[in-house]
Predict the structure.
Amino acid sequence: MGSEKLKGSFDSNDMKSASSSLISLMAAVYCHENNITLYARGNDLGYSPDFFKGESEDWARKYLVGIAFEALTVKASEYLCRWVKEVFDCAVIVGWVLPRFYGHIHKKAYYA
């Protein structure tokens, strides 16, 4: 019974970190699309349009998604993949980036 509670707390932590990454990613993509500067606080994602000058739109979106997944656990990455598919209507984010992260997630799980 105690291990069930412990397992649930890990899932809860994974969901918290995945939802935090999703919110940060949504804010960064919005700022990117509207040329707005977003300052980071703590571990949250910041955004500066100047960083992406000279880069393609696709490259910028791939980069932002990469940051969102960077420090997540395997389980949190799985949650984030699922939620990104539900939230975004962007071919680059959903169609190009997520399949590559699924591969990355499974490599992480294999070597863990």
User: Anything to note?
Assistant: The helical segments are 2-34, 57-69, 74-87, 91-111. The CA atoms of residues 45 and 67 lie 8 Å apart. The radius of gyration is 15 Å. Residues 1-9 have pLDDT under 50 and may be disordered.
